[in-house]
Amino acid sequence: MSDEQKLVRFGILGCANISIKLCKAISKAPNATLHALGSRSVEKAAAFAAEHSLPATVRVYGSYEAVVEDEEVDAVYIPLPTGLHVTWAVRVAERRKHVLLEKPAAMNTVELDRILEACEVYGVQFMDGTMWVHHPRTAKMKEALSDAQRFGQLKWIHTSLTYNPGPEFFKNSIRVKPDLDGLGALGDIGWYCIRAILWAVDYELPKSVLAFPGAILNEEGVIISCGSSMHWEDGRSATFHCSFLSYVTFDVTVLGTKGSLRLNDFALPFEESLGYGTFLESSELDYGKIEPGMWCPKSNKHVVETEFSQDVCMVKEFAGLVLKVKRCEMKPEKVWPILSRKTQIVLDAVKESIERGYKSVEIVS
C-alpha cells in the first residue's frame, strides 16, 4: 500500500474560523491530508490558503459544490452555518464522501435524521465535531466514574459553558442570526453541556427535560442565554447553563454517593498545548488525607498525557474509520451518529420547553 493510500484526503467547505483549527489538525494527523478547500469565491479561498500557509498542493475552489464533486476527495469537513448542514451534508453523502460535521449537527432531529439516513444509504462514515470527547483525558475520567468503590452511584451533574464576546458579536455573528444559526447559544455551547451530561450517564437519555425560566432571546428570537434541568427515572438529575452574556466558564461537576469529579476546562483543556490535560477527583477513600479543622478532603489532581491535541485526535479517529471503510474492513461505525442524535434529541427538548413556557418535556427513547 502506497503512503498516499494510507491518507484520507479531506475537503473543507468554507473559511470559517474553526476551519483554521481543522486545517492545522489535518496537517498533524498521521492518517490525513488536506486536499481541497472551497469558498463562495475563489478569491476568498485563495486568500485563506495564503494567509494560513496551506500547502501549494491544496486545491482551491470558488464553490462548495466543486469540493464535493472532486473525485479525489475522500471526506468533507463541514463548518457551515447550522441552517445549511442538512443541504450540504446530504450532498456530500450522496457523492459517497464521508461526513465530519461541525456541531450543532442540525437545526433539529428531523433534519439530522435526513443527514444520517443519507450517510446510511450511501455507506459513509458520520461524525460530529465535538472535539473534547476524543481527548485521552476523557477516557481517563470515564474510568474514574466507572470505579464503583471510589465514586459510588452517580447522582448529579452540572455543566456550564459561557462566554461574553462583546457587542460586535451580537451585530454580526452568524450565531445570532435565525436563518443561519438559529439555535444560538443553545446550539453553539449548549451542545457541549448536553453532550457532557449524556457522556457522564453513558448516553442514557433522560426521562424529562425542564428549561429554567428566564431564557434570554435577542430581538430575532435567537437564544443567547438559557439553562435546563434533566431527570432520570432512577433519581439521577443534571443541570446546565449556557450563555453569550456571562464571563467565560467551561465547568463540569459530577457527584456520586462516594466521590466527585470536577474540571474547569472540559471543552478546551488549559494545558493541551503542553501535551497533557488534568482533572480533579476525590472520594471517601481520601478521608485519611483530611487536615485538622477541615471536613472536606483535598481533591486528587490527575494528569493525562497526550501525544496529540484533541482536534488532532478527532481527525485521526475519524480518518482511521474512513480508511477501514474504504478498505472494506468494516462498515461505518454507528456509535457516532447515535451519540449525535441523542444530543440533538435533548437539545430539541430544551428548546421545546422554552417555547412551551418552561413546561416539562418528556423524552421517548
UniProtKB/TrEMBL annotation:
Residues 145-262 form the GFO/IDH/MocA-like oxidoreductase domain. It holds the Pfam family GFO_IDH_MocA. Signal peptide: none annotated. Residues 8-127 form the Gfo/Idh/MocA-like oxidoreductase N-terminal domain. Belongs to the Gfo/Idh/MocA family. This is Gfo/Idh/MocA-like oxidoreductase N-terminal domain-containing protein. It comes from Flemingia macrophylla.
